[in-house]
What we know:
The complex is a heterodimer of chains A (267) and B (361).
Chain A: H1 2-31, H2 48-51, H3 56-89, H4 95-103, H5 110-123, H6 132-157, H7 160-168, H8 173-202, H9 218-228, H10 232-256, H11 258-262
Helix pairs in contact in A: 1-10, 3-4, 3-6, 3-8, 6-8, 7-8, 8-10
Chain B: E1 4-15, E2 18-29, E3 33-37, H1 44-52, E4 59-64, E5 67-68, H2 74-77, E6 79-82, H3 94-104, H4 109-122, H5 138-150, E7 156-160, H6 168-185, E8 188-193, H7 196-202, E9 205-210, E10 213-218, H8 220-225, H9 230-235, E11 240-250, E12 253-258, E13 264-267, E14 277-282, E15 288-289, E16 301-312, E17 316-323, E18 328-334, E19 346-351, E20 356-360
Parallel strand pairs in B: 3-8, 3-9, 6-7, 7-8
Antiparallel strand pairs in B: 1-2, 1-4, 4-5, 9-10, 11-12, 11-14, 12-13, 14-20, 15-19, 16-17, 16-19, 17-18
Helix pairs in contact in B: 3-4, 3-5, 4-5
Amino acid sequence: MNQIVSGFFWVSLVCVMAFITLPLIVVIAASLSPSAQVTLVPWEWTIRWYGDLVASRWLDPFMLSAQIAVLVSVISGVLGLLAAYVVAFEKCPGHAAIMSFLLSPLAVPQIVKGVAIVLFLSSAGLYRWVGTPGLIAAHIILTLPFAVRMIATAMFNFDKNLDRAGQSLGATKAQRIRHLLLPIIKPGVFSGMTFAFIISFNNIPLSVFLVRPGETTLPITVINYLEYSLDPVLAAVNVASLLFVLAVIFVFEKVGGFSAQIHGGSK
Amino acid sequence: MTSTDIELVKLSKNYGSTPIVRAIDLTVPQGEFVSILGPSGCGKTTTLNMIAGFTAPTSGQIRVRGVDQNGVPPEKRRVGLVFQNYALFPHMTVKQNVGFGLRMQGKNQADIDAQVKKALHSVHLDGFEDRYPKELSGGQQQRTALARAIAPRPSLLLLDEPLSNLDLKLREAMRIELKDVQRELGITFVYVTHDQEEAMAMSDRIVVMQESVIAQVGTPSELYSTPRSTFVADFIGKSNIFAVTPTRAEAGIHHIEISGTGLELLAASPEPDQTEIAYCSIRPEAARWIEGRSRPDRPLNILPVEINKIVNLGAYLEVWCRHQSDTVIKSLISAARGAHLKPGVNIELTIEPAAIKLLSK
Lengths: 267, 361
């Protein structure tokens, strides 16, 4: 019986993993395609399409996306930390209502948010914000609920007795925040920032309303290109941005140590 | 020289209109080990939190070495705290945990290292400096928490059920260690617990709390030998407690009748007044089984009883004895002596009148 269960477990595990990774494998294979058409020929491959990526057509949108994502991630982290501190740690009056309000953007479809932001900017006479400033602001609206949620969870899990212990040992509030609260919730802050980074870097539905010529993010550039052609360069762009995001996750995890949080231990 | 360390004056705490602690008065001299003992919800932890400064009293005063603590934040009180869940800082090593208080005081690293070493030595944790809390056993974590609390040398240490997460054997060993550390350092300990054995084993004095008020304060032996209420008699150790009505008194001996069964007993208890007698308490070891002895010429309760049930406690047997009046009295008999006893056997219990404590309502 146990063998059947464990066999079933392994089969489902392999299926799920295949389900998740097969599209990626196809994209990777396509990016190595020897001809200008996307073909999947396992024994013939080239990396020449990756050479095209350094052209400004791809490099500029990549740089813009990366800059926006870094800013959005940092700002979401800082704002999320401040909001979560007041709401989840200090439990200010009405904290539950404020928490719901902070998470409410999640309930609004991105398309609706995008239209709303453009309408707001034009009616408020801020149409010149369309472009990078608008993209950053819009992405923060999108990512802040995730950051708040992740950081607030870490704050909720913070044992209040640690704070009391610190207090009884003579630590002032500032010292307790610096030496106890922040180091212990750091993984939560970094996982919130990682989410913000990925969401911003990959965003299409919101960005599509706010880009303008010469200030286009990478996903929007990919979509625009896809309207006219489907070739291995596109696959190479996707593989490169995938590797970039993985590298960012790796760095955040090294600095923030959030896999420890996810796996339920900490060092 | 002993001086007063903590004074609680008419200390009260209400949550809304619910009183949690009602007008407590208590004086603790420097260097005393005092336990606050009571069932959950009696207000003992709230009292501790008020002394620590985490909870502001509704009324009344807390004085530490004569200084009113009202408005003094916890971080300025210099009161050590040991928590039930240890509350060790998980991202710091044992050494960093123990040195935290000294570091916050701005001590230099050499002083910190020396004090940490001393504190760890007094809790027998030498060599564990670089471990993280999760690499320690429960008992080691408990010792680290104790070392962390004593390292800054507070004059007062508050302990909130610190042993209740440990298993029985370790708990018993830690009791002795805690008492040793306290005696060695001369720090006043205020120890909150619901475990009467723990309180009895370690305390110089015990404060028994019941429903927001102090039921009785005394040394462990005072509380055991002269409980002033059925609550204390029942909470501290085991007791046969009966509702009684006094029938008459002569020459300092009260004649009392156990309600419901009509068994008459003689009790020599100075308190309370004849009119206030409502209960009596008899410790199981005071209901003695004495064989074949001539009756002395003085007032004595001698009860022929039949054994009903025997509970083996290891070194002792708790023997449930039924008198013909249907009164059941539990008696403690050493296992060696009572080896041949079994239910159905008739024996005689002797109870000294002075061993029967009379209690008011």
